[in-house]
Amino acid sequence: xxxxxxxxxxxxxxxxxxxxPDYVKVQKCLHDCLPDNYNINEPFxxxxxxxxxxxxxxxxxxxIPARKNEDSDDDELSIFGVFVxxxxxxxxxxxxxxxxxxKKQINDLLCEAELxxxxxxxxxxx
Length: 126
Known about the structure:
mainly alpha
């Protein structure tokens, strides 16, 4: 996993429940993960015209509907999730393999953080 991503998730994990994240810091961390030749100003897939849009793939047609977030404590986390999701989609357009690797590592970190919150400790590797 790119070191800026690790830094970003360590920062996010260190935040308290009611702490507003430093979004500029998070954005910089995520931006530092992008390849040098990546154009951040490229349009998202859904912003492309009908004729220029790529054909749908299994992953884009099997999306789970977004859950309505009624708890205001989760607003910052939702914003962060949207930001990470957009960043991964943009990264996937230029480097799908890297985007898959990053997504797997993000999932691993999130699962580990959730287990830590529930009191489970990571077993030492032998």
